[in-house]
TrEMBL record:
<dbReference type="InterPro" id="IPR015424">
    <property type="entry name" value="PyrdxlP-dep_Trfase"/>
</dbReference>
<dbReference type="InterPro" id="IPR015421">
    <property type="entry name" value="PyrdxlP-dep_Trfase_major"/>
</dbReference>
<dbReference type="Pfam" id="PF00155">
    <property type="entry name" value="Aminotran_1_2"/>
</dbReference>
<keyword id="KW-0663">Pyridoxal phosphate</keyword>
<comment type="pathway">
    <text>Amino-acid biosynthesis; L-histidine biosynthesis; L-histidine from 5-phospho-alpha-D-ribose 1-diphosphate: step 7/9.</text>
</comment>
<comment type="similarity">
    <text>Belongs to the class-II pyridoxal-phosphate-dependent aminotransferase family. Histidinol-phosphate aminotransferase subfamily.</text>
</comment>
<dbReference type="InterPro" id="IPR001917">
    <property type="entry name" value="Aminotrans_II_pyridoxalP_BS"/>
</dbReference>
<keyword id="KW-0028">Amino-acid biosynthesis</keyword>
<comment type="subunit">
    <text>Homodimer.</text>
</comment>
<dbReference type="InterPro" id="IPR015422">
    <property type="entry name" value="PyrdxlP-dep_Trfase_small"/>
</dbReference>
<dbReference type="GO" id="GO:0030170">
    <property type="term" value="F:pyridoxal phosphate binding"/>
</dbReference>
<keyword id="KW-0032">Aminotransferase</keyword>
<dbReference type="InterPro" id="IPR005861">
    <property type="entry name" value="HisP_aminotrans"/>
</dbReference>
<keyword id="KW-0368">Histidine biosynthesis</keyword>
<feature type="modified residue" description="N6-(pyridoxal phosphate)lysine">
    <location>
        <position position="230"/>
    </location>
</feature>
<dbReference type="GO" id="GO:0000105">
    <property type="term" value="P:L-histidine biosynthetic process"/>
</dbReference>
<dbReference type="InterPro" id="IPR004839">
    <property type="entry name" value="Aminotransferase_I/II_large"/>
</dbReference>
Amino acid sequence: MSSLQELVRPELRGQTPYGAPQLDVPVALNTNESSYPVPQVVVDQIARDVAEVAVSLNRYPDREFTRLRELLAGYLRRTTGEPVTAQQVWAANGSNEVLQHIVQAFGGAGRTALGFTPSYSMHPLISERNGTTWVDGLRDADPSKFDLDGDLAVDQTRRHDPELIFLCSPNNPTGTALDLDIVRRVYDATERAIVVVDEAYTEFSREGTPSAVSLLPGRDRLVVSRTMSKAFAFAGARLGYLAAATEFSDLLRLVRLPYHLSTVTQAVACAALEHTDTMLAMVDKIKTTRDDLLEGCAALGLQPVPSDANFVLVGGFDDAAATWQALLDRGVLVRDVGIPHHLRITAGTPEENDTALRALRAVLEGEY
Ligand code: PMP
């Protein structure tokens, strides 16, 4: 009899699943969630709205999530000033599922996806799990530099001629936002690639950083993906979305499972979007905490990378894995993203920030 390891698809054999540790620690700064709970006024609204729809859970949900798309399009119009319509918007259970829909529709066996490493680890995982060959592009010829070099991105796009290109702005795990000119140039360097700009952290960008949503008109192969997991402080609700050409969003219906967004998910997300300002109220505070975290790390003699996101990539550790463990021993969970001498720290509350910085100081001073 064959073992299950032999029966599983060959490309999955020996692979490990995505697994950021979910540990019960006093200070969890490892997955770029918001540390602030959902405001009570929204909790109350959610409770009312879920109670209202509960009676109809005998029926399948609105397959077209019509109201949710309207609200998401409204949010994009209001924040970007661009005339985004509900028909251009697509949504799914987290932006991971949105990205998976894109790969399922436009990637697949015999096709290639290009990304610029280090970037979001799920871009290659989702690509490969769906049969797409992944190409690890470089951000800069000098691997110690994390900003994407436009000329190099264009060269690699021409050289690999992929079907899919992943850009990430602000980039996870390095933190900086992308100059839109690079998005334009990468788009123009190919006639066939779908160019995905993952803007999961865009609300934390510095004042005046434009969204790639402004580039959508006239660019049918461009997609901007977003999430409610970060700035909306809504990671548990699992709601991601994208804006693209109407025809692009229409095509995603071919790969989504029927009724993929439950009635409850739609109700919960709509309630949050009706309270957008309340949900986003902590964004400015988180940006200040991020800047404090950056300064605090610099004051400790570390090398934090400038950030437009709700986290900071910090360099300068002799042994990042040992520091990660020593911090965890002190109740502070951060992320070892596999970049030598670096750790990524989410900006939590000011109190969590202080605890993290105190723990860092103690660890650096050798009090393991
Ligand atoms: N894109 C980026 C760049 C991310 O960092 C994350 C979450 N860590 C996601 C997408 C996915 O988030 P979600 O599925 O919660 O929307």
